Amino acid sequence: MNRFLLGKNIKEMVILFSKIIILATALPSLRISPLLAFVLVGTGTLLFNVMYIQSIGSGLTSFGDLFNNFLLVPNGSPEEISLLLFSSLTPIKPKRLTKAEKEAFLLPETLKQILVGLIMGDLHVYKQKLGINTSLVFEQGLVHKDYIYHLYELFEIYCRSAPKISNRLPDKRTGNIYTRIQFSTYTLPCFNEFYNLFYPKGIKIIPNIIGELLTPLSLAYWICDDGGWIKRDKIVKISTNSFTLAEVNLLVEVLNNKFHLKCYVSKHTSGYVITIPSYSISVLQELLALHIPSMMRYKIGL
Q: Are strands 235-239 and 164-167 parallel, antiparallel or unpaired?
């Protein structure tokens, strides 16, 4: 079969398959019979098998090769391509939450501790200018998709949809386009206390009571986001470039006094970073071993 026609046919089947999956996703709310649901999902599976067989018959080296030219992941692996395909499907929009439903959401203590660490890292805490409540935006490069899905599992009940993959705008320095994976939460009152603590004037700060807020669980997720393991020197560096020197000094004081580390401040081209030296790494590892997610243990040398 002509390669162009094959690609065109398979694109059409992908679109059809996507529509079937979207419909199947909506089945519970539509109250469609289990038999029809089984037929729809089975049809989708059959289509995928046909596409796979056709890709082999065309002489392509892998099913992923067929899609690399029309999906957004540059040089994507088959796993990443499949992930993008499913994350790009048109979502079923959930109903708007009522005020009472929003107020029913509560945060357990463990998630509060995790949020402290994430906010000090990459998490964006967002409130519209005239908004009452707060939403959270989680984002990582595609290389950290396992970590994002771990976070999504923790916060799934607060979210309107699963993580999505998209391309960032071209990097201003290099012109390169990087792929990201992200998800966001509903706008909820249970997140307001964190906005008020860390964004009192709309810009992220380190609150004066950070010593009371920071726990080993918080520290684990802070390092997941902003920590870096320097294998050669066996040290951990925490990127605190966006904070003032006074704030970074406060963080070092808390880390040293509360967790018995021997951190120090290092000057960086764009601000200040925290260094956890090699002679404190064993203390750090013992402190965080039970708290840090498995895919991020390498960040503390484990």
A: unpaired
Contacts of 202 (CB under 8 A, 6+ apart): none
Answer yes or no: is pLDDT of 192 > 80.
yes
The residue-averaged pLDDT of 37-59 equals 44
Third-level CATH fold of 210-300: Endonuclease I-creI (3.10.28)
Same topology, domains 99-198 and 210-300? Answer is yes
Given this model, what pLDDT does residue 142 score? 83
- Give the Cα separation of 159 and 144 in Å (integer): 19
Average pLDDT over residues 153-178: 82
Query: Can you tell me whether residue 81 is helix, strand or coil?
Result: helix
Residue 163: exposed, middle, or buried by beta-carbon count in 10 A (0-12, 13-18, 19+)? buried
Q: How far apart are CA 172 and CA 170, in angstroms?
A: 6
Cα–Cα distance, 16 to 4 (Å, whole number): 19
- Taking the C-alpha atoms of residue 282 and residue 279, their distance in angstroms, rounded to an integer, is 7
Residue 222 CB neighbours (<10 A): 22
Q: Is 84 helix (H, G, I), strand (E, B) or coil?
A: helix
CATH number (3.40.50.150, 3.10.28.10, 3.90.226.10, 3.10.20.740) of 99-198 reads 3.10.28.10
pLDDT at position 77 is: 52
| Nearest-angstrom CA–CA distance, 142 and 180 | 5
- Is 0.85 surpassed by the pTM of this model? no
Domain ranges of the chain: 3-87, 99-198, 210-300
Q: How many residues does the chain have?
A: 302
Q: Rounded to whole angstroms, how far apart are CA atoms 279 and 285?
A: 11
- DSSP 3-state assignment of 8? helix
